[in-house]
Design goal:
Shape: elongated
Number of helices: 13
Pfam families: Cupin_6, HTH_18
InterPro entries: AraC_lig, AraC_XylS_family_regulators, Homeodomain-like_sf, HTH_AraC, HTH_AraC-typ_CS
CATH architecture of the largest domain: Sandwich
Helix content: 40-55%
Strand content: 15-25%
Order of helices and strands: HEEEEEEEEEEHEHHHHHHHHHHH
Protein name: AraC family transcriptional regulator
Keywords: DNA-binding, Plasmid, Transcription, Transcription regulation
CATH class of the largest domain: Mainly Beta
Number of strands: 11
């Protein structure tokens, strides 16, 4: 399994809630920061979104905005528009003038991720993914958006289930969108996978997590010197190669412990530790609790 697929598998995303958003005239609203990944798909018209400390961003018909972690933001018909502070919900909302045909339509909501590894895995993704219609409406991304927009306006049986599944597909398409390769702020796993040399090393690590990897060995796979590889990996992925590998091993271990059914010996062998004792020591050092206690805690949650 490739690295991005493995991250998505551990996150196990699903559309927790989605709702139609319509508006007319001048309007604005605000949301507080929350840890659920948020999204907005503009179906008609335009709006302006503003995050703290940043300039307003124009969202037009066909644009898709994905926030793996959702900071506080405002959304309105004009730059700088503010309004009431709202709580996320799955209920349809109408802003601005309540009468007449809306001049703005969107689908907004949030995804739910598996919380066991969410902090680690989300740190490997960009903080914000904005796919303008001009760039995203061609190819697979555009076809998915058009199908989703069509389903949102339909009244077919099973509509809610189809919308949820298509949103999950749209999430994956957004994460592998090629436009992120040109985004200087997208440091993390996605940026590493778009660097041919680093991608070879990342693919090798994920293909055999049990191997006794060294920086020198990974550098050879990348076709670089040890020092150049280490510096480039740290800069682009955002953490040192061995730190990335250790974090990924623990992510796999936490997932196995949360699911249950595997002994510590089996988990240790699966992720490359020579014994359950060595794995337990590393797990406790990194997470502050023994793996057995962690498994019991997750079983009681």
């Amino acid at each position: 399994m490739d690295p991005l697929s493995e991250i998505i598998t551990l996150l196990r995303p699903h559309a927790a809630l989605s709702k139609p958003i319509t508006a007319r005239g001048r309007w604005g609203l605000r949301y507080q920061a929350h840890d659920a990944p948020g999204f907005t798909l503009i179906l008609a018209g335009e709006a302006w979104v503003t995050f703290a400390g940043s300039t307003p961003l124009r969202l037009a018909q066909g644009d898709f905005l994905l926030m793996p972690t959702t900071p506080a933001f405002s959304l309105g018909s004009e730059p700088g528009m503010t309004g009431p502070l709202l709580e996320p919900s799955g209920e349809p909302v109408r802003h601005g003038e309540q009468d007449g045909e809306p001049d703005f339509e969107a689908l907004g909501g949030s995804f739910s991720f598996e919380r066991v590894n969410a902090p680690l895995l989300l740190a490997l993704l960009p903080g914000l993914i904005h796919i303008p219609a001009a760039q995203g409406m061609t190819g697979r991304m555009g076809r998915t958006i058009r199908l989703l927009a069509e389903e949102c306006t339909s009244s077919h049986p099973g509509k809610d289930l189809i919308v949820q599944r298509m949103l999950e597909v749209l999430l994956v398409e957004a994460l592998r969108w090629q436009g992120l390769a040109h985004d200087a702020a997208s440091a993390g796993l996605l940026a590493g996978l778009r660097d041919p040399a680093l991608a070879r090393a990342l693919q090798a690590m994920h293909a055999d997590i049990r191997a006794h990897w060294t920086v020198a060995g990974l550098a050879r796979i990348a076709g670089m010197s040890r020092s150049a590889f280490s510096a480039r990996f740290s800069l682009i992925v955002g953490r040192a190669p061995m730190e990335y590998l250790a974090g990924w091993r623990m992510a796999v271990a936490k997932d196995a412990l949360a699911r249950g059914g595997k002994s510590l010996e089996r988990i240790a062998d699966d992720i490359g530790y020579e014994s359950a004792s060595a794995f337990s020591t590393a797990f406790r050092k990194r997470l502050g609790t023994p793996p057995g206690s962690y498994a019991r805690m997750m079983g009681e949650a």
